[in-house]
Amino acid sequence: MLILALLTAGGIRALGVQNFSVSSGSMQPALQGGDTVTVWRPDALRDDVDRGDIVVFDGRGSFIASAPPSGPEQLGSWFGIGPRDVFFVKRVIAVAGDTLECCDDSGRLLLNGEPLDEPYLDPGISASEIEFAAVVPPERLWVMGDNRPGSTDSRALLGRPGGGMIPIQRVLGTVIGHGSSIDR
């Protein structure tokens, strides 16, 4: 019975929902450092991640200057086994095939040549102090924190392997709630 319970719990964690701790203020005001977020795994397993989604991903090989996770390490992260300091929480700004650049005359990001509306940013926060222009390659995502001055994200990692963009297969899930609420 105990083995069945452990297998069921592991299956739910690997294929359903999983909780993570937010370690910094890079996603303020939406998420605060110390918050616990719940992620929905099926979106990531189906590669169904959209612009605007807040995601948790494994940063090894892109955000962390190390080798990408091996197959067993990637599998372990699905079950919550392994180091916890390799996970990041950011908002998806652009997906494969998108062009993204900073910034227009009003200081807004340009997504596929059009100004991007970002209502989740605090008033007075610049879309980016770092100028850039990028095309998101296949199977990659461009991610940024909502607290742009306090976030290390795709903008700052353009010179790293993968150009600061994360492989979609490293996404563990989309955030569906934080604290005690699930608000998909």
UniProtKB/TrEMBL annotation:
Record's bilayer topology term: Single-pass type II membrane protein
Superkingdom assignment: Bacteria
Gene3D superfamilies: Umud Fragment, subunit A
EC category: hydrolase
Enzyme Commission numbers on file: 3.4.21.89
KW GTP-binding (keyword) present: no
PANTHER family hit by this protein: CHLOROPLAST PROCESSING PEPTIDASE (PTHR43390:SF1), SIGNAL PEPTIDASE I (PTHR43390)
The protein's name in its UniProt record: Signal peptidase I
Species of the source: Brevibacterium daeguense
